[in-house]
Amino acid sequence: RAMGSFYKYYSGELVAPYLTLFVGGNHEASQPLQELFYGGWVAPNIYYMGASSVVNFCGIRIGGVSGIYKNHDYRRGRAEKPPFDNSSMRSIYHVRNLEVYRMLCLSNSIQSTPLDIMISHDWPQGIEQHGDTQGLIRRKPYFQREIQQNCLGSPPNNEMLRALKPKWWFAAHLHVKFRAQLVHGKTEQGSMPNSGASLSQKAQVTDLVPSSAIQADTRKRKAEEVPIVVEDSKQSTRMESPQSKSLEGEESTPEPPKSDKEVTQFVAPQQSDQSCGNIPDLTDQMTQFLSLDKCLPRRHFLTVVDIPVTERIDNPKLEYDLDWLAILRKTHHLSTSSPHNVELPNELAVIDETDRDWLRERIGSLDIPNNFTQTVPPISHGNVVDPVPRILPPPIPLMGNPQTDHLLQLLQLDHIITVPFADSSSPPIVISEPPPCESSAPLPVEDVVEDGNEIDLDDADE
């Protein structure tokens, strides 16, 4: 284990050159992220999406869900508290049914606009069937059994993918670059999908456009690109990977395989022009999926995509999502710090204008304040011990974060999963605006240190 370089961003020694959004995976500093359960700044210009949340930037609606799926913890409450034992240090990053339920409520929101981007760590279950499945197996042969049994990826993520139909879905976790295109059929709104048996079966897609149309459209497009850090450029919003490093020699989009066995074919009856007249563009029904590799030399960890925006915004700000805040208010009573199972309603919560009007009157501007707070003293460069010693000081208790306090006070909600911020030593240091970045040159790649908690995925490139 090594200290890494994040402490430099936390202290202000370095500043992310682009607004950067991220979700948690299974190798994070779980305690400080738990204190920002609903999202918040972990450093100037670096925003954590929380356990689940939705934000807006330049009119682009971005959703995120942190963690990985484990069935034995999925229905449990959030009972993890420091000091963590061998069980809780893992269960804390396991996604829960309440976070997924809240995301699904977006699909039942009256007058709600679709998500443009969804970010997760886990893949949606079954997404590999909508890309070059055989190519994935050639690169990662130990995935073959899971693919055959349809258990590669997260069932809840598949649930959200099909209910929310985002234009883009970005993921990681499996340490391989992979693209897929899913064309959606019609779904019913309002009912609560079954997270158990129905998703243990292979997902079915209906009312699909023939694969020949998809492949013809694909050949006209540039290589897909991944967002996390956002830069306003002309009439579009540019998204880059959180590492903010360029990858020379990025390969171009490969031609579709000639063999039908190499890619899942979307088969549907030919439809007349009259029946398709209300579909302006194929991409309106499609989710583009992209997963990237680890940020290591000679790996495909970076792609760039330009996403059009409806209007140019001077000095754009990251914004709360009005419907998401309303969903938090309507579902807060379901939150629990008990380890017992959480019983969810059979129907999705409905957000209407009454909920939105209350929020508009209460909070005014939707701009997320630049209220990053150093809740513990930063580590100075001269005091870094690397590698980290095996015998560590005693863990500090859960201490909360002023950003979480601010959001809950804004929504008139109590602390349940989190605790109020309390610092007996010194007041928190609030940085309202990130200082200017002197240089956007890429940071040097540091030596790779083996992590004993790393998932063994046999990352050798072929």
Characterize the structure shown.
By secondary structure, the protein is an alpha/beta fold. The protein contains 13 helices and 15 strands. The chain has a seven-stranded mixed β-sheet with strand order 8-11-7-6-5-4-13. A six-stranded mixed β-sheet has the order 2-3-1-9-10-12. Strands 14-15 form a two-stranded antiparallel sheet. Helix 5 crosses helix 11 and helix 11 (322-331) crosses helix 12 (353-363). The longest helix is centred in the last third of the chain and has 11 residues, at 353-363. The radius of gyration is 22 Å and the shape is globular. Residues 195-280 and 435-462 have low confidence and may be disordered.
State the end-to-end CA separation.
Answer: 27 Å
Helix content: 10-25%
Runs in which pLDDT lies below 50 for 5 or more consecutive residues are: 195-280, 435-462
Average pLDDT score? 77
Shape: globular
Radius of gyration from the alpha-carbon trace, in angstroms: 22 Å
In total, how many beta strands?
A: 15
Strand order in space, largest sheet: 8-11-7-6-5-4-13
Task: Output the number of helix runs.
Answer: 13
Biggest sheet character: 7 strands, mixed
* SSE order: HEHEEEEHHHEHHHEEHHEEEEEHHEHE
β content, as a range?
5-15%
Helix/strand class: alpha/beta
